[in-house]
Amino acid sequence: MDISIIIVSWNAKACLQECLSSLPAAHATKSIETIIVDNHSSDGSPEMVEAQFPGVKLIRLNENRGFAAANNIGIRASSGRYLALVNSDVIFLDQCLDKLADYMDQNPTIGISGPRILNRDRTLQFSCRQFPSLWNNFCSLTRVFKVFPRCEWLTGEHLSAFDHNSIRKVDALVGCFLLARKAAVDKFGTLDEGFFIYAEDIDWCKRAWDAGWEVVFYPGTTAIHFRGGSSANDPIRFDLEQQRAVIRYWKKHHGLVATAMLCGFHFCNHCVRLLAALPAYALAKPSRSKAALSIKRSLQCLKGLSRAIRIKV
Questions:
Q1: Is residue 16 a contact partner of residue 9, using CB atoms and an 8 Å limit?
Q2: What whole-number distance in Å separates Cα of residue 92 and Cα of residue 177?
Q3: Does residue 221 share a domain with residue 242?
Q4: Cα separation of 50 and 45, whole Å?
Q5: Are residues 274 and 174 in the same domain?
Q6: Per-residue buried b or exposed e for 127-147, using 16+ beta carbons within 10 Å of the residue's own CB
Q7: What is the domain count for the chain?
């Protein structure tokens, strides 16, 4: 088997259906298997897969195990020499799996690669990232990159100054669509299941580099990523999960002092957001619901930061 496609899904029936329907566009010459790991969906996703895509291997979990753990279940059930970890809200284009696998066949030092990612309207989605640092987090939170959009030193973690038109070795790739060499994964390991969702992709890429494998962005093929296929179901919960994952990553790779400084950045950011949302809630009736959601998000994230020190690695 050339490629094992592993898709984790949670209550994203429409996105998953569109993703699987686009699969014929992803390959022509490579042999593939498709594995869906369903995180205990209640929206009829597993039944849809069974009825409409009988050739797909479906693994139904009896609880939501999280993104990293569910992907690992799919990896253990796979037989391909390449592992394609793909979000349920991705649309395959342009024989992207064939082209990525061919490129990695020609470059045996690459452990993980990813294609150019487009938004729903076919505009570019920034998928290349730098490893997190206090400086690039400061740039992201203060949004200084909006003032200097072409200065890579000020862009934050996302390489938004990079035009994504050339092959490039990068620190990390956003995990909506990753093609990993199985022989490399055998060396640097599967996803860290301590991450429920978010940051597991950055951690995976870092462990790949640490083990001597390259992470490479390959723009010779494309895919569409809609974003929010599952997170739209419960945005505040996913905000908290993202914050928790970021803090866990920092404890794992940067230590307690740097993590405390990062938490300080986020504390100030949520306070500013909260203060900005309060007048909008009080004065602007048409946008009051949006302001209320922003206030609730900031309050919940501030509460989460107060428990950050207890997050275990």
A1: yes
A2: 10
A3: no
A4: 9
A5: no
A6: bbbbbbeeebbbbbbbeebee
A7: 2
Average pLDDT score over residue span 132-155? 85
SS3 199: coil
**Of the ranges 104-113, 144-153, 232-241, 255-264, which is most confident?**
104-113
- In this structure, the answer to whether residues 81 and 212 fall within a common structural domain is yes
Question: Do residues 184 and 95 both lie within one domain?
Answer: yes
The amino acid present at 145, given as its one-letter code, is: F
199 within some domain: yes
- Tokens representing 211 are 């083990």
Return the closest-CA partner of residue 149 out of 136, 162, 166. 162
Last residue of a domain, one of 230, 247, 272: 230
In this predicted model, what pLDDT tens digit does every residue of 146-189 receive, in sequence order? 788 788 888 888 898 899 999 999 999 999 999 999 999 999 99
Sign of CA dihedral 33, 34, 39, 41: negative
Dig out the tokens for 83 from the structure.
Answer: 């592992």
Instruction: Report residue 209 as tokens.
Output: 């580099």
- pTM comes to 0.88
- With beta carbons less than 8 A apart as the criterion, state whether 305 and 263 touch: yes
Instruction: Indicate if 86 and 189 belong to the same structural domain.
Output: yes
- Judge if 205 and 80 occupy the same domain: yes
Please give the C-alpha separations between residue 100 and each of 21, 73, 132, in angstroms, as whole numbers.
Answer: 20, 23, 26
Supply the range of the domain harboring residue 284. 234-310
